[in-house]
């Protein structure tokens, strides 16, 4: 039982390449959906006087060398910013192995990776146009992950503040790792962003529906990740009702915190990504299907990322696709 190590944000960034993280998160989803993981409920804490929202998530993948507990926070006083840390413990004796002072980077990256898993399993093979609703960190990380599993030609970004959307589009045009020759532009309305989009990514803090079913083209895929708390909502319930394939990371959690809280009657036909990845449930079976994935973020993703960090942070790792 040695002294715990302190791992910095920079070391986390060097250790977590998106392709390997997508693979690790997919394996974690399979373990979760097949009963190979321990996952307690999310602790949600609000600090209303300063608009603070804190999530505490934990998990253990059976047979893994470590388990992890993560604390992540976001405050209205620092918009589009997540802070936090991950405590990594030895699964053999419970001793603290590492304090990962990542300032929320693991949350950002593993959330992006979950979107990559969803796209790999559900998005159409040919993606020309992508719509991104939201201008925070996930507007970047979701595209990083998507670029690892699909190519694309055009991205439209929508945000409540047009100048923020324009700024994100400019940044994405210079972002390494995205498809060469792809174009990026801000959209004035949600409907304009969604027009003819093959993949739709929603990553806002909305508490009212933004996406209407009639705005989605046949064969589109939607990854919705902004709803991770009671009352949050990005999709009109009709989007879920019309989906040919309705998927999620955790059915139980999504009914409480995700888009499914607004359409609980659809839960019985919702399939978990882990079941699709394991071949226990079908994903997309035809190009014309509408596929929707509800992501709330589960603790096994943090464990998967922490395992990679523990194994690679001290020796570095490549970070491209």
What is this entry, summarized?
Helix content is 32%, strand content 27%. It contains ten helices and 17 strands. The radius of gyration is 18 Å and the shape is globular.
Task: Explain the layout of strands and helices.
Blueprint: E1 5-8, H1 9-15, H2 18-33, E2 37-38, E3 43-47, E4 52-61, E5 66-75, E6 82-90, E7 96-101, H3 105-122, E8 129-133, H4 137-149, E9 154-158, H5 162-173, E10 183-186, H6 190-194, E11 199-202, E12 207-211, E13 221-224, E14 233-235, H7 237-242, E15 245-248, H8 251-257, E16 271-272, H9 273-277, E17 291-294, H10 299-312
Parallel strand pairs: 1-7, 8-9, 8-11, 9-10, 11-13, 12-14, 13-17, 15-16, 15-17
Antiparallel strand pairs: 2-4, 3-4, 4-5, 5-6, 6-7
How would you describe this protein?
With 321 residues, the chain is of the alpha/beta class. The protein has two domains: 5-107 and 300-312, ornithine cyclodeaminase, domain 1; 115-298, Rossmann fold (3-Layer(aba) Sandwich), CATH 3.40.50. The chain contains ten helices and 17 strands. It has helices at residues 9-15, 18-33, 105-122, 137-149, 162-173, 190-194, 237-242, 251-257, 273-277, 299-312; strands at 5-8, 37-38, 43-47, 52-61, 66-75, 82-90, 96-101, 129-133, 154-158, 183-186, 199-202, 207-211, 221-224, 233-235, 245-248, 271-272, 291-294. The strands form three sheets. It has an eight-stranded parallel sheet. Helix 1 crosses helix 10 and helix 2 (18-33) packs across helix 10 (299-312). Residues 316-320 have low confidence and may be disordered.
Features:
ornithine cyclodeaminase, domain 1; Rossmann fold; 321 residues; single chain; 10 helices
């Amino acid at each position: 039982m040695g002294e715990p190590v302190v791992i910095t944000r920079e070391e986390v960034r060097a250790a977590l390449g998106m392709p390997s993280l997508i693979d690790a998160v997919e394996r974690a989803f399979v373990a979760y959906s097949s009963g190979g993981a321990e996952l307690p409920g999310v602790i949600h804490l609000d600090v209303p006087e300063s608009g603070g929202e804190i999530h505490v998530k934990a998990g253990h993948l059976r047979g893994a060398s470590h388990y992890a507990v993560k604390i992540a926070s976001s405050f209205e006083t620092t918009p589009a910013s997540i802070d936090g840390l991950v405590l990594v413990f030895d699964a053999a004796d419970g001793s603290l192995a590492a304090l990962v002072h990542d300032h929320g980077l693991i949350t950002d990256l593993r959330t992006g990776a979950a979107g990559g898993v969803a796209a790999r399993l559900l998005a159409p093979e040919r993606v020309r146009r992508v719509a991104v609703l939201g201008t925070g960190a996930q507007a970047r990380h979701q595209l990083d992950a998507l670029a690892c599993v699909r190519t694309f030609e055009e991205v439209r970004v929508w945000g409540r503040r047009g100048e923020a959307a324009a700024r994100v589009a400019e940044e994405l045009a210079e972002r390494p790792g995205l498809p060469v020759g792809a174009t990026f532009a801000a959209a004035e309305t949600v409907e304009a962003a969604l027009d003819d989009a093959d993949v739709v990514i929603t990553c806002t803090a909305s508490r009212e529906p933004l996406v209407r079913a009639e705005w989605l083209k046949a064969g589109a895929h939607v990854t919705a990740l902004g709803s991770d708390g009671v009352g949050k909502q990005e999709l009109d319930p009709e989007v879920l009702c019309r989906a040919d394939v309705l998927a999620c990371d955790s059915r139980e959690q999504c009914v409480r915190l995700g888009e499914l809280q607004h359409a609980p009657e659809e839960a019985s036909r919702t399939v978990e990504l882990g079941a699709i990845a394991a071949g226990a449930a079908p994903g997309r079976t035809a190009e014309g299907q509408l596929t929707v994935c509800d992501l709330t973020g589960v603790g096994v993703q943090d464990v998967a990322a922490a395992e990679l960090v523990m194994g690679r942070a001290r020796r570095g790792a490549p970070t491209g696709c």
